[in-house]
Amino acid sequence: MTTQVTGGVTRASVKAKASRPASKGWPKWVLGLIGIVVFLGLWELMPVVGLVQAKYLPPASEVIAALIADLGLTAFWVAVWDTMLAWLIGLVIAVVAALVLGLVIGMSPFLRRLTNSSIEFLRPIPSVALIPLAVLLFGIKLESSLLLIVYACFWQVLIQVLYGVADVDNVAMQTARSYGFSYVQRVRDVVFPTMLPYLMTGIRLAASVALILAITAELLIGSPGLGKEIALAQSGGAISGMYALILATGFLGVGINAVTRIVEKRVLSWHPSVRGEATV
Question: Residue 163, class by beta-carbon neighbours within 10 Å (0-12 exposed, 13-18 middle, 19+ buried)?
Answer without folding.
Answer: buried
